[in-house]
Amino acid sequence: MADRRPRVDPARLAAHDVLRAVRVDDAYANLVLPQVLRQHGLRERDAAFATELASGTLRMQGLYDEVIDACLTRPRLEAKVRDVLRLGVHQLLSMRVPDHAAISTSVDLTRARVGQGPAGLVNAVLRKVTEGDIEEWRRRVSPDRADDLLGHLAVRHSHPRWVVEALAQALDRPAELETLLMADNDAPGVTLVARPGLSTTEELVAAGGTASGRSPYAVSLSGGDPAAIPAVAEGRAGVQDEGSQLVALAVADAPLAGRDERWLDLCAGPGGKAALLASLAAGRNATVVAHERQPHRAALVANALRAVPPQAYRVVTGDGTRPSWVPGTFDRVLVDAPCSGLGALRRRPESRWRRSPGDLDELVPLQRALLDAGAESLRPGGVMVYATCSPVLAETVEVLDAVLAGRGDLEELDRMMLWPHRDGTDAMFAATLRRRS
């Protein structure tokens, strides 16, 4: 008997599988996507299509949900049907996919992944979506700009309102808020790091990259699979946002008097900054302790460090708020604290929908405790960088000010705030401190 199940192209199946993993398994899209692409055997154009379809849908799902709800006659909708509709809306409003192809493939996807029942609903909703382009739909579903600016921007640029409010408070130039939100929705480029002593920017440029700007080790990659580059496959280079590189360099380059042999990365997972620090330390006869609380993340750190000379680092698992070493052990310390991650919305599109203001109630005390533990680990005269991949004031300036107010032995040397719309990096905060003698 012939197989009458609808045939859906693997790229759309892969994108749907990513959305399902994010929703059901609480997965991170950027981590699950490579696995899904391999499972479906996707390469080059098909892989790029699936990546844009999944990541773009996740970024814009707030706006798309408003559009979908405006097209429904009944408010209730199964989550797995909404996944298919979101994918269809992204193809109709934000990708160069013909209307008939976006609708028919979405109906087939519904039959293949959900069942025959909702296929008619998906067809009807998506046909209504074709009545306007994305700008028309933004005008229809967004609050009036004059009456509610933040609400208008939240819907128009698909951010939760509380995130827009937090970014508005953190941004030193309020007129740039909409530009920042737009930058959050741009697909990020791939940036490589040539780990010093192991690789060079020249090697990565020869593999198809372009030397980048502020980090001397950064190379941007316009396309292709980074893992296919030998230096990346061997761990001599890695994929690392330039902002992340600059944070590690702030630790390594801070002026320091006296001994410079013992470095600490207190929250080292998943290992990008630790690998850059350790490769720099190897050239200075220093050693990095890469400390991570969670064993599975410590394994990621060890993998990131696999090409670094073993005498230049040690991976340690433990509670960073209660260090096992003697106070004053280290000359340089990085406290890259767990945070909301709202500075990395370009590459972690689902994060904006997972976080809530209540998360800060748990994160901020942890950040303060880790910064205090980092200060205790630092020798008098040593230098420390407190960093977050978040611009939110509660996690950055307010944490720093609270710890500085409670300790008389720390002084601030420098402060850096990077923004995607200005610097082309994740939004990253870094403050360099010295422990007074």
Protein traits:
437 residues, alpha/beta, seven-stranded mixed sheet, RNA-binding
Task: Describe the protein's architecture and organization.
- S-adenosyl-L-methionine binds at residues 267-273, 292, 319, 336.
- This is rRNA cytosine-C5-methyltransferase.
- With 437 residues, this protein is α/β, with parallel strands linked by helices.
- It folds into 4 domains: 10-135, N-utilizing Substance Protein B Homolog, Chain A (Orthogonal Bundle), CATH 1.10.940.10; 142-184, no CATH class; 190-239; 242-435, Vaccinia Virus protein VP39 (Rossmann fold), CATH 3.40.50.
- It is built from 20 helices and 11 strands.
- The strands form 2 sheets. The chain has a 7-stranded mixed sheet.
- Helix 6 packs antiparallel against helix 7.
- The chain is globular, with a radius of gyration of 23 Å.
- The termini are far apart.
